[in-house]
Specification:
Elements lengths: L3 E12 L2 E12 L3 E5 L6 H9 L5 E9 L2 E2 L5 H7 L1 E4 L6 E5 H8 L16 E2 L5 H14 L4 E5 L7 H15 L5 E6 L12 E6 L2 E6 L2 H11 L12
Parallel strand pairs: 3-10, 3-11, 6-9, 9-10
Antiparallel strand pairs: 1-2, 1-4, 4-5, 7-8, 11-12
Helix pairs in contact: 3-4, 4-5
Length: 236
């Protein structure tokens, strides 16, 4: 039986007096890859930030358990030490700092990914293409040796070839090492190259659907749009 690595119970989140997450229940087991889909402003990225411990968001209810421990009130650095890592949707550019120097600070071990070798001596994300930024984020997460990797919109803004490259890195470097993955995506295109154990759909701060049949979920969304997900997929 697979061990549950992340368990979220009835999570409610507010920011600027507005409730963003409205009673979310969620769990991921060790070595699983789960996809979280949803329209823009549905709460997906907020969900990722809250798991990582961003203090911007106020938890008004519920709990976050990681490896069986309550981390609801822990700061982000403590969560990172426990093994949670986040690949940012829009990572910042840092002039004057080479990417290789950042990696040296993160890990003593050398992380070699063919697609990212040309980034090492360049300034972090400075003049990086969209695909290079995504690969840079994956390399940084790998260097942290996480137990849980949260990949926020890792396929956004990429053409098909680059989506395929990103999916290849996830399969060969994350899944083979039994890293649990929460893959957040709007388009779902990357799921053509990865097979998640479970796919969830979030709308208006709630998970309205969960299914192991990710192909059916994608087909339904493509045909009817996200609003159809408020109905049970068994009725379609």
């Amino acid at each position: 039986m697979q061990k549950i690595i992340l368990k979220i119970k009835n999570l409610r989140i507010s920011a600027e007096k507005k409730e963003i997450l409205k009673g979310v229940n969620f769990e991921i087991k060790k070595g699983e890859i789960q996809a979280l889909l949803g329209s823009n402003a549905s709460g997906k990225s907020t969900f990722a930030q809250v798991i990582m411990g961003n203090p911007k968001y106020k938890i008004s209810g519920g709990k976050i358990l990681f490896l069986g421990k309550d981390i609801t009130k822990l700061p982000p650095e403590k969560r990172a030490e426990m093994g949670i890592a986040l690949a940012w949707q829009t990572p910042p550019s840092i002039k004057g700092v080479r990417f290789s120097k950042l990696l040296e600070k993160i890990s003593k071990e050398k992380i070699e990914i063919e697609e990212g070798m040309n980034l090492l001596e360049r300034e972090i994300n400075v003049d990086f293409s969209g695909g290079e930024k995504k690969i840079s984020e994956l390399i940084q997460v790998l260097a942290l040796k996480p137990k849980l990797a949260i990949l926020d919109e890792i396929d956004s803004g990429l053409d098909i070839k680059k989506v395929e490259k990103v999916a290849k890195i996830i399969k060969e470097r994350f899944l083979k090492q039994k890293v649990s993955i929460l893959l957040i995506t709007h388009s779902g295109e990357i799921l053509n190259y990865l097979r998640p154990n479970l796919v969830s759909v979030m709308l208006d701060g709630k998970i309205v659907c969960q299914s192991k049949d990710f192909e059916k979920v994608l087909k339904t969304i493509k045909k009817y749009g996200y609003e159809k997900c408020k109905e049970c997929f068994r009725k379609i």
